[in-house]
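Question (not urgent): is this output format expected?
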Amino acid sequence: MGRIASPTSSPVQPSDAESAADDGTPRRLFNRHFLLLWQGQTVSGVGISLSQIATVYWLLQETGSATTMGLVSMAAALPGVILGPVGGAIADRYSRKRLIVIGDCLLGVAALCLGFAFLAVDGAVGAKVAALVVSGVLTGIVSSFFRPAVMASIPNLVPTTRLSTANAMNSFSMTASMGIGTAIGGVLFRLLGAPALFLANGVTYLVSALSETFIRVPQTLPQAPPSMRALFSAFVSDVATGLGHVWNRSGLRNMVLAFAVLNLVSAPTGVLLPILLDQHRGLAPDWFGYLMAAMAAGNVAGMAFAGLVRIDGPARLAWGSARSSPWPPQLS
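Got this back:
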């Protein structure tokens, strides 16, 4: 694991002057640095989807326990809940490029180790479940610092006037890559098994890390605090400032609370839907992948639709209610 560089006040300038203004801000949206980051995230998004399907269906087939499936998912999600605010502060104080590259490398190594562990251990379901928990926790910890660094880098890689377009491209690529990964994930799990999909996930992370080594992120870093105590105080202050910024703005606060409630009520879908398809409908894992891909396609269509119409006031409530309603097809 590489060591994160010490803070410095010197900004990092892009190497290609054609795509950067005097202050380091790129002049073009489709510049080399943004496209490298964008394609890296797209590739790794496919791998993440493959790994998620492999995890869910391996647990279903080997344990048949919804409780075990839920606990493994919780182990992967919990670090992000705890460390998410800290990750944003880290991304503001240390090199975002280093955080991104090191993060992708660590995630890739963790996925490869998981795949090789499954290949090396014959049987021993309990040991493999423990390996999934450990891998999930490590992935959650690394992602807590990796994801904020990615999101914070986008404004440094595109012109300010094209930031909304860049964010839309990033959201679209992540949703589309998840759709592609889930569409083929069920078939690949049935044909190749879970270890192959874990290994494929590791390879996509390393491919992403390789492409990101060529990125230059213009970033002005703050001066290093004089002591560890001062550094800790600075981190606490940064986290408190960020949380206060969100809480004191009703729009942001309500959006965060709405997403928290939505995730709370929708998260069981990832556990219960495979059980419904496998044990109550007798369908192959392929169909779970197809359904998740259909959801991703719906998300993409919704993003396009949201850009064409004005959704405000009562309309926003109506669309939000429609999004979270238990439609009859989901219950049948």
